[in-house]
Amino acid sequence: MALSSHYTEEQICKMDIRDFLAQAHFDDILHSVRTLQVARYARESTKHEEQIMALENQVVRLDTMIESNPKFILDEKHKFTEYGISGRQVDDRVAFNMMLQSASRYEFNVLIVQDTARFARNIEQLFTNIRILKDYGVGVLILNGNHWTYNMTETDILRLAIDAGMAQGESMRTAKRVSDGVESYRARGQLVISGIFGYIYEKNIDKRLNTLTPHPVESITVKRIFDLYTHPDPQKRMGSGKIADYLNENNYKTAVGDLNWSASKVVRVLKNEKYMGYILYGKVKVVDTIKKKKVATKIKPIREDVYDKDGNLIKKCNLVKGNWTPIVSEEVWWLANEIRTKRAKEYIYSEKGNIVTGLREPKDIIAQKSFCQCGYTRSIQYVHVATQKKEAQFRYTCRCQINSGSHKEKSVCHVPAVSEVKLWLMSLKVFGYIFGDSKDEILYTINLLKEAQKYKQKNRTGKSLEDLESELKKVETQIENLYLDKLSGEIDANMFKKLTVRLEEEKAGIEKGIRDRQLEEARDSKETFDIETIEKKLNTYVDFTGRKVSDELIDMFVERIIYRDNDEFVWEMNLSGVRKNTIDYRIKEYSEEFAKSLQNDDNFNILHTFIISTEECQQFMESSRVGRRFVKKYWKPITVKIAIK
Ligand SMILES: [Zn+2]
């Protein structure tokens, strides 16, 4: 993430300069909010007149760009220009050496160049220069390719090396591509895609000649995804969700240039056989020839023909080699495919069913505990990133609504997003009630709840498990008899069918009754509230001076927060103080039954209900600990129900 989304302008300006250079990304430097001493270096290698023209254009363009930025200070003596020198050896370059000397006197912080080719002739020299300059506290801003060299991650280095290598090898590769491909294009047929992340789609008048060229930046991202997923050490392999986080954190842009990588986008990359240079035909089929509606067929790639032991073909290879440069090797692609299908299987068969699904806990502690009344989680989203004077602001949004994207009307849920500030205020009030001076009241209520629980268990209505089981036996015997009656010709086929359908329905009903009852009894047999532990925990010290309760305490005592319509919230507390993994509450699919259970107070042990008025909200918003503008239309009284697990 860019610096500017984390820090205010004031904070950025106060940073130590080297700290700033080390944390900054390309954009933070290019659109710097703090004043920077810059230098610029331009070079051209031959004396040819046209190239001198080109040089001047380049210099003028660069200088105009730099001088139009009020935060860049560019002294005349820091405009370094190399005129018509071959540049094969560093020693030949007078201006370059002057620039290095000037850097060694710590005269500037940022060196701006147009591209890597102007800065160094080969990759080794490029990185040597970068390292020398860094020792002098100078980072290089390379405009083509958006590189910032002061503090490069492994990936940045790779990306820069490839950019530099690409410039060097462009002509070589073009020639190779032509000789490699053309002959076999026709035999393979046409490439039937419109665009694919990682490649530039090159259309040809003869559609059969359409091809793909690796995109200089996106192809690195694709390669990185495969590398992380298929790490040689299985312990170090990342799942799709983790990779998505990694890409977002390390500034790898998506196809549309944003940082909205998700697990499913990563999986889409891993699944695409084009990255190893193949086409899988039949991935979609046309189901409506008039509207040209297509559906995915979920066809699986088959690497080679498979025969049974008698030599009969049972699976046919469905991949055709394409004419373009692969981004990953076939081995890596198939390994990723193997890992992916294995993970899917592990999910289906794992008892918990949640370790490998990408259902992992978010970093934000409130988000970890947040659930919408529709059953889905609530995710943290930017309201806006930090600007010059304002800190970043967030809200919690229903995952179901995020998933439905622009098709909002299709979402089963319409409960609005909630500002983080509401959660902070509630945390103070909820913890204030529990760990404030209501201790006796709470213990008294918990005792009442405990008694009620016992009473409920003793006086359960409805049939007992034994009754239900004997009923089940009866129906099963009836069904059996029916078969015998049919065999002996006592009833005809029609009657038999009618009667069996009715009995099977009855049987299913009883079976469901048994399951429900078993569940109920299992629930009741669980230990009820441990008053002694709770009493001890109620003495926990809580600091109420901040704008919210500390993450540690929220983590320890909040079981989950349920967001309901009309600004109603259930804070389910776990007063035993044993942290619970909220993954158990996470769902993969909408269930009406589950959603309804979250909306029904009967399913919670509610200790206390209170309302926070809009006036109180306003006071909190405008207080020095929050210090945000209060916009009345976004606020209404908040209903808070404290429940105990
Ligand atoms: Zn929802």
TrEMBL record:
SUPFAM superfamilies membership: Resolvase-like (SSF53041)
SMART domains linked: Resolvase
InterPro entries according to UniProt: DNA_bind_recomb_sf, DNA_bind_recombinase_dom, Resolv_N, Resolvase-like_N_sf, SSR_resolvase
Coiled coil: 458-485
Recombinase domain location: 196-346
Keywords, in A-Z order: Coiled coil
Coiled coil recorded as keyword: yes
GO molecular function, one term: DNA strand exchange activity
Gene3D superfamilies, alphabetized: Putative Large Serine Recombinase, Chain B, Domain 2, Resolvase, N-terminal catalytic domain
Pfam families for this protein: Recombinase, Resolvase
Designated name of the protein: Recombinase domain-containing protein
